[in-house]
Batch of 2 targets.
Target 1
Amino acid sequence: MRDAIELEWAGVPSLAIIHEAVRGSAESMARLSGFPDYGFILVDYPWIPTAVWTDDEVRTLARRVAPQVIERFVRG
Amino acid sequence: MLRAARHEYRDYSSLLEDYYERGWTDGLPVVPPTPESVELFLDRAGLEPDRVLGAVPTREVVVTAEHAAINAVMAGCRPEYFPTVVAAIRAHLHEMGNCHSTTGTLSGASQIVVVNGPVRGEIGVECRGACFGPGFRANATIGRALRLVIRNVCRAVPGVFDRASLSTPMRYAFCFGEDEEANDWLPLHVERGFSPQESTATVHSTMQVCEVMDYTSRTPEAICEGWLAEILRRGIFADRFVAQANILIVVSAEHQRYFNQAGWSKADLRNHLWQRCQASGENAKRIMLGGPEGFLVVGAGGPGHATTWLFFPHLAWAITQRIESANDERRT
C-alpha cells in the first residue's frame, strides 16, 4: 500500500493489490498516509498471503485481477 | 521541555483502565509516567526530550528521547536502565534493523536485546541461570521498554501494523546479558569492534527459535552437527534489502565447556560452521549469511541443561549500539 501511495506522490499512477490477511494494516497505512479512500484490489484464498505460489497459480490470479486493474486505471 | 499531552486521573485504577482503553499497554499494568519521572530518566541518559533516536519513515514515525523515556517508565525500568534502553532503540531503528518489516511481519518476529560490557554488573542484567525468563527486573523491563516503544510509538499494534498470525510471548520482553566471565571467548561486542570497557546493546530480530538439546555429544564437532542439522534443514534467508543475515547462537554453560576444553575460540567455531555449510552442496545456497561472521555466538545461562538455542533471523541485521553515559551524551 505504501509503495503504491509513494509512487502516486512521484506522479506514477499506481494500484495496490492486497491480500485479505493484511487488509487491516493496508487500510491503516492508507489512513496514515493521508489517502484513507485509496482504492485497492483484494486477493483472497486459495492464494496464500505470502505469495509462495506456483506459476500456474500466478497466471490464474493474474487473469482474474487484470480486468479489475485495467478498469481502475481507465475509469479512475 | 516535555511535549507529551498531560492526562490526570483520580487514582491508579482509573489510569490503568484508561490506558488499556486507549491501547497504550501490552496488556499488563504499567507504571504511570509523570513529568518528574520522565525528566529523571532523560537526565540519567543526558538527553534532551526532543533528541531523535530513530525513525520509521514508512509509518510516519520519529522516535524521540521523550517517547523512549515515557515508555521506559511505563515498562517499570529504573532510571539507570535508561541508557541501555536508548541503545536498544537506536539499534532497532537502524535502517538495517528494518523495524517496519520485523514488527509488521505475519511471522510475528520478536526483538532480542543482548547486553554486553560492564553495564551488566552495574544495573543487574542477568547472564546466567534462567536469564531468558522471568525474575530479573533489568532483563524484563529493558526488553519490555523496547517493545512498548515499538507498540506505542512505532504503531505495531495488532490489527494495525502488527499483522502476526500467532505472534510470540517473546514480544512482551526479551533481554539478557552475555556471560563474558564464564570463559575465554571474546564477548560479542568486542568481536564487533567495541572495547571490553564499553557497554553495548545488540538487537536481533528473530523469526524462528530452535532449541538443540544434546546431552550425548562430547566434542565441538559433534555438538555443531546437531546445530547444523537444524540450520541446513531450515535455511537462513535474506532478501535484496538486507542481502545477508545473522543467526544468533546462544550456547549454554554445558555446551560451552566442550568448546573451551578443546581450545575453540568463537572464530574457530564460526569458521567450522561456515565450512560445513559450504560443504553441504545445494543446501549452502540457502545459508545467506555472507560469511562466517554471520554466526553471532554468545555464551549465557547456568549449569545443568546441555542445550544451545538458535535464533533464526527475520529480514534484518543484528545491530550493536554503544550504551552512552550521561557525560558522553552531553559532549555530543
Target 2
Amino acid sequence: MSTEQPTLEVRDIVKTYGGVRALGGVSLRLLPGEVHCLAGENGSGKSTLIKIISGVERPDSGDIVIGGESHPYVSPSDAIRAGVQVIYQDFSLFPNLTAAENIAMLTELADRRKLSSRRRIRATAERIVADLGLRLDLDADVEHLSVADRQLIAICRALVGEARVLIMDEPTTALTHSEVERLFGIVRRLQARGVAIVFVSHKLDEVLDISQHVTVLRNGEVVSSGEASGYTGRSIAKAMTGRDVNEDRHVDDLPESAEPLLIVDSLGRKDAFEDVSFALRKGEILGITGLLGSGRTEIAEALFGVHPADSGSVTLDGTPRRIHSISDAVEAGIGYVPEDRLTQGLFLDKSIADNMVAASLSSYRGKALLLDRGRIGRSMADLFQRLRIKAPNAKAPVRSLSGGNAQRVVIAKWLDRKPSVLMLNGPTVGVDIGSKEEIFTILREQAAAGMGIVVISDDIPELVTSCHRVLIVRAGRIVAEMTGSDIAVDAIQERMTA
Amino acid sequence: MGTLRRLRGPNNEGVLVAVILVLVVVMSLASDAFFTPNTFFGLVRSSLVPLVFALGVLMVLISGGIDVSFPAIAIFAAYTTVSWSGQASFDPTLVGAFVVAIVIGAALGFVNGAVIARFRLPTLIVTLGTQGIIRGILLAYIGSAYIASSKMPPSVAQAGDAYLLDIPGAGYLHGMMVPVVVVTVLVWWMLKYTTFGRSIYAIGGDIEAARRVGIKVVRTQIMLYSLVGGLAAFGGMISVILGKNANPQTLVGTELDIIAAVVLGGASIFGGRGSVLGTVLGVILVQLINNNLVLIGIPSTWQRAAVGILLIVGVGVQALVALRSRPQPVLLDEEVSRA
C-alpha cells in the first residue's frame, strides 16, 4: 500500500436504490499521476460510484475524502471546485448550445461569472482545442455534430479547467483508433502533471495499455484490486464475471457444401461507397470493419433499404432482389440490428415481450385479423429463455435493462421473424464482457442453424474471436478480405488505417 | 443560399418579418384605413401587455417548461395592489405601486418555482394547479368587484392618460411603452449576456447535463419562476393602467394566445430554443391579425381560427425545414410495422 497522500479517496460507500443495493461498502484511493482502471460489468456499480464522486448522487453512508478533508457527500459544484471532472458515457452536453459554449460552461460557472462573454468563451474553447491538437467547429450547435465530435467536446470540457481528478466513463466508444491514440497521449500528459485519472472501459486491452492500478467491481463490491501489471485481460474478465471468459478465437468450421446465401455484386451509393461485392454463405459469420465514416454502416444500411444503393445488385437465396426500402429488405428476409439500439431499435417504455414481437406482428394474425395472444405469449417465453435475458419476466419495460440485455431484446425481435440474413451493427457497444460472449454464443447458434450473419464492428478482438471472414472497408471500398488464421488484431488495424 | 439562410435567422425571425410585411402590404391594398398612424399606434398599444407576458413565457419555454399561471398572477398582483391602496386611500406613487405588485407576483412565482424545482413535477400541471388556487384566493379573499379608475390611487389612474406622443386626430403613443421597451431590452440582455440567462438555455437543453456541469438547477429554476412572476405582475399593472380599470375577470383565457405567439416566434416547446426578437415579432404578428383581419373583409369571428392556422403552419414549416436540414434516424419499427 502506497503511503502517498491520495488526491481523492472514498471509504465504505454504501448506496441503495429502492431496496436494491448498488454499492455495498466500496473504497477507492486515487493517487496523483496514476491511471486507475475501474472495471465491472453493466450494473456492477461503476456508474453509481462515479456519480457519487462527482456529487450527482448522495451515498447512504461512507466518506469522501478530498485533499485530506472528509465529507459525507459532495455537491456537483463542490466536486468541480475540488477539481473533479467527469467525461460521461452519454457526454452530458447541451444540444442547443454551441460547441464553444459547451466547452467553456464549466469554467464560467466554476469562476462564478455573472456575465457571459462570447469572446472569453470562444478564447477558452480555442485554447483547449489547440492544446489538444483537435479540429472542431466551435460555432456549430452540438446537435448538428457527429458522435465522435461530441465525444471530443466532452473531453475538451473536462480538461479545460484545472482538473485534479479526471474520470472517464467509456471515453473511447465513438473514437477511431488514431483518436484513441491521441486521447491516450493526452492522458499521459495529464498524468505527468499529477492528475489522478479513473478510466472506465469495456475494451480491456485498452485499459491495460494505459492504467497502473486496477479495481474490479462486481455486484456493488470490490472483488479485486491491485497493480495493473498483475492483471491480464483474461484475469480482469474473470474477476468481473466470476467465471472464465474465453476470448480466444472460437469459430466452427464452415461445411464445404455451404451454399452462398447473399450475393452482393458491385453495390454502390453516391458519396458513400462503391463497387462493394461479397458473398455470404449459409452458416457464415462475416465481419465488416473500418474506421468511423469508412462506409461500413452505409453498406449495411443500403442492404437493409434505410438508404438504398443506387447501383449494383443483390441476390438472396438465388433470387435477385431489389431493395429500395426497409419493407423490401424485411420481405427478402434480411434483419438489421442498428448501431444506436436505444433510439433506433427499441420502444424503451414497452415491455420486453412487446418489443420482441414488434417486427413480426403480422405473422401472429389469427382469425378475424386479431392477434393470437396465446401464440405470442408462448413464442416470447421461448425466446426469453433461449436468449437468457436477465429480467424478472418478459413484462418488464426495456428501459430497466442493462446494455447487454437490451441488445438481446433487439436480437430476439429479429430472431422471431426468422430472417435468413441478420446484420448487426456494433452489437456489443456498451455491452459488458460477459454479455458480449453470450451474444456471440447466440449468434453462433443461429449460424449453426443456417442463418447468415453479418457483424459490423470496430471492436476488432470480437471479430477475431467469432468471424469466419472479415472484410475491411476504407474510404467506401472493400480493401481487404481475411479468412481463417489470417484474421488477427494487428493485421486488421493496419489495413483499416493504412 | 448562405445569405438566405442568414436572413432566415436562427429561429426563423426572417420568415416572420417576411410574413408580417406581406400582411401589411395585403392589408394596405385591401383597405385605405389600414396604413395610417392610427392603426400603427393601436397595434403598439395592444401589443404592450401581450409582449410582457410573452417575455415571461419565452423564458419558461427556453428552460424546458410551460407556464399557464401568468394571467392569474398578473391580475392577482395588480388587482390586490390597487384594491388595497384604494381601500386605504393611500397613494404609493406609480413606482411604488409597480414595486408592490411585482413583489406579490414574484412571491407567487416563487411558489411555482419551489414546487417545480424541489419536487421535479411537470410545469404544466403545477402552473395549472397554482393558477386555479391564485384565482380562487383572489375572488374569495381579495375581491371580485370591478374597480374603476376613480377608485384607484390617483398616480395609477393618471398614468392611464400619460401619452408619449399625441397627434390630434391620428391617435397617440402610450407612455407605458417606455417601461415595456426597457424591460424587453433587459430580458434580451439577460438571456444573451448573463450566466443566469445561459443557464436557462442549458437547463432547457438537458437538465441532467446542467446538474452535472454544476448549474444549481433548483436555485436557477426558483429564480426564474420568481422573475417570471414579477414580470407577469408588471404586465398586470400595465393592463390595469391601459384599461383604466381593474377587473378580476380580465386576462383570463389569454394564456394560450400568448404561448402561441411565443411559439410562432420560434421558441421550441421542448425547451432550449427561443429569442426575444422572435417573440416580439410573434406578438406583433398575432396582434396584427387580431386587430386588422376585419379590414380585409374577414369577420372577426375568424380571428382565433386565423391564429390557430398560422400556428400550425408556422410550426409545421419549421419542423419540415429541420427535418430536411439533417438526416433523421429512421425508426425501424415504424417502417416494419407498416410493411
